[in-house]
Amino acid sequence: MSNITIETYCVGEVQTNCYLAVNDTTKEVLIVDPGASAGALHQRIREKEYQPAAILLTHGHFDHAMAAKELAELCQVKIYAHEAEKETLEDPRLNVSGMIGRREVYHADVYVKDEEVLKLAGFSIRVFHTPGHTAGGCCYYIPMEDVLFSGDTLFCQSVGRTDFPGGSMSQLVRGIREKLMVLPERTQVYPGHMDRTTIEQERQWNPYL
After folding, report:
1. For the chain, does the N or the C end have fewer beta carbons within 10 angstroms?
2. How far apart are the first and last CA of the chain?
């Protein structure tokens, strides 16, 4: 029986999926990719009486990371990102905040490693380093719940763009094949944009794989 509820909020100028992953037993919540709307997300968390546990960034582009600092301060939690993404977060050229006419610098409090297992909100969360969209892009997998937060690595019948600085299609596809496509076919995939999917669907229908 599932112990997780996932709420999806489309935020910011490029309609990024921000997720609240709620532990149904403890009401602890993980916040994945808060790219905008810190105030509204915080209000939702307070209204539902969720207990914030952490902010997880799949990568450092502005549309995923821009509201992380403000929301972390409001919720009094730490921001997590992959260790290879520090430069992307801190460099406006790499985090492409110039696309919205800004020069933003972001940060994380905790830099994680590939295959590290995080114990947060009552869940064991496995980190997959999946570079290609960015140098330190990663996915967060919760095995007990058959849930994967794939950021801009894997989409429904598509994959992330690789034409930004630090991008590599060969790296991206290799990471998806070696780390994501081997997951159980029932795994629910929650991407950074567009609709959710499953590993089974992507094995069958994704033309990039």
Report:
1. N
2. 31
